Amino acid sequence: MRSIAEAYSKGVPLVEALPEYQERFQELYRRIEGEVAR
Amino acid sequence: MKIAVASGKGGTGKTTVAVSLALSIASKRLSVKASKRLTEANAETLGRYDATTLFLDCDVEEPNAHLFLRPTIERREEVGILIPQVDEAKCTHCGRCAEVCQYHAIAVLPQKVLVFPQLCHGCGGCALECPEGAIAEVFNPIGVIEEGAAGPIAFAHGILNVGEPMATPIIRQLKRRAKDFAGTIILDAPPGTSCPVVETMRGADFALLVTEPTPFGLHDLRLAVEVARELRVPVGVVINRDGVGDAGLMNIAPPKASPSSCASRF
Predict the structure, then answer these.
(1) Is B30–A31 a contact, with Cβ atoms under 8 angstroms apart?
(2) How far apart are CA B155 and CA B157, in angstroms?
């Protein structure tokens, strides 16, 4: 996606440029927690 | 919990994922329960009480997470290893030091001893075995560690001096910051599957492998999974740039490759 590449080139973190991704990373973290707890 | 973000192939988006993960969990304070157990030892090591997430950029040959996290650097520490220094007046050129060196970092000629600092692993075997006590160990700097904070994230990265070949001593030293940290630790690994990656991944609770749907991505992902399997670290896979390239990536079947796995697409 062009907006991600543009943010990257300016040193702007993905989740700051596109805050909607935060929730997906939080969900990923919860899944990792679940895997580690198994 | 220690999460190593690795990839095998370079340029797949490791740092993007590692930084995004750190910012996302820190903003939500998902590791807040753990932070309550932060001790004075943490504060001494990291200079702050309130960090719930620790970010360690272990890509010491080319660290770049600081460009995104923009931490305030509060401390700087030189890192090095001890290398041999031969006292020619005491040396009898018996060659014992060269015999014990497994890395060929020392060569004994009839009239002279040559030391190759960049091959030395700092084990100290030569000094220990020298029958004349002619070898002293001297500090040889190979890089620095810088640490500070980026909002609620405690941050540290290693920087290997240009021309130095050994990254692992810096990574080992960098990981000591994690020893007493009770919150979540994100380790941004170097690319590849060689010693620096092994050193980064060793002791992690989980390896998050970032890949891309290309033949190269798949090839190197397999290698990275093998490393994690060898280290008995459970893995999950993030497929970056999903929808671009080779759909064959999904046939890797992570469940066969490790005790546990999960996959996310971005």
Answers:
(1) no
(2) 7
- Rounded to an integer, what distance in angstroms lies between the CA atom of residue B228 and that of residue B212? 18
Backbone angles phi, psi at A25, to 5 degrees: -70, -35
Going from N- to C-terminal start, the domains of chain B cover: 2-79+142-265, 88-133
Residue B208 has pLDDT above 70, yes or no: yes
* pLDDT (0 to 100) of residue B217: 87
Chain A residues bordering chain B (beta-carbon distance below 8 Å): 8, 11-16, 21-26, 28-33, 35-36, 38
* Domain ranges, ordered by start, for chain A: 2-37
Judging contacts by C-beta atoms under 8 Å, the chain B residues touching residue A36 are 1, 205-206, 234
The pLDDT assigned to B152 comes to: 87
- What percent of the residues of chain B are helix, what percent strand, and what percent coil, each to the nearest 5? 30, 30, 40
Burial A1-36 (b: 16+ CB within 10 A, else e): eeebeebbeeeebbbeebeebbebbbebbeebbebb
Residue A35: closest CA among chain B residues belongs to which residue? B260
- Which distant-in-sequence residues (6+ apart) come within 8 Å of B229 by Cβ? B235, B257, B258
CATH of domain B88-133: 3.30.70.20
Give contacts of B236 with chain A, Cβ < 8 Å.
31-32, 35
Level-2 CATH architecture, domain B2-79+142-265: 3-Layer(aba) Sandwich (3.40)
Q: Which residues of chain A does B28 touch, with a Cβ-Cβ cutoff of 8 Å?
A: 22, 26
Give the per-residue pLDDT at B262: 54
Q: What is the pLDDT of residue B52?
A: 86
